[in-house]
Amino acid sequence: MKDQVFVYGTLKRGEGNHRLIAGKYTKVRPAAAQGLLFDLGAFPGAWFEGNRFLYGEVFEFEDVEIVLPSLDRLEGCPTLYRRIRVPLFDPETLEPDGTEAWAYEYHRKLDGDRLIPSGVWENSR
Ligand code: PCA
């Protein structure tokens, strides 16, 4: 089924796990979602709640079922991350873009000193 996946961490282009989706999608664009982004060391976590924004990329697939099983395995879904539907926002205007996507939410909320206030994860920080 045609669908989208929003990623904010190691699945982004140029990051360590992107190869799991590379070459399998039909379109990509920058996007934002509402939530908290936090630093877990080698990878980030997100908690999709509240009115802050976090930023990433949304990938469109003709048949999303081709990638979801391998992404679920990588993300330890449903133990470590849960796969949920999130509404997407234009990353520049922060207006709703009218679409939703699958995204991986960390199994618990972790803010405080792990919060990434910019909402942008970069492995090279
Ligand atoms: N991989 C998923 C969730 C966190 C991570 O590092 C992603 O990129 O969205």
Protein architecture, described:
By secondary structure, the chain is mainly beta. The chain has a single domain, classed as Hypothetical upf0131 protein ytfp (Roll). The chain contains 1 helix and 7 strands. The strands form 3 sheets. A 3-stranded antiparallel beta sheet has the order 1-5-2, with no helix packed on it. Strand 6 and strand 7 form a beta hairpin. The longest helix has 7 residues. The mean pLDDT is about 95. The site of pyroglutamic acid has 10 residues, from loops.
Number of helices: 1
Shape summary: globular
**Helix content estimate:** under 10%
Largest sheet: 3 strands, antiparallel
CATH class: Alpha Beta
Q: What structural class should be given to the helix and strand makeup?
A: mainly beta
Task: Give the structure's gist in a few sentences.
The chain is mainly beta. Helices cover 6% and strands 40% of the residues. Bound molecules: pyroglutamic acid (PCA).
Task: Name a few traits of the molecule.
two-stranded antiparallel sheet, Hypothetical upf0131 protein ytfp, 1 helix, 6% helix, 7 strands, binds pyroglutamic acid, three-stranded antiparallel beta sheet, 125 residues
Secondary-structure topology with pairs:
Layout: E1 3-7, E2 27-34, E3 36-39, E4 44-47, E5 53-61, H1 68-74, E6 81-89, E7 96-106
Antiparallel strand pairs: 1-5, 2-5, 3-4, 6-7
The chain binds pyroglutamic acid.
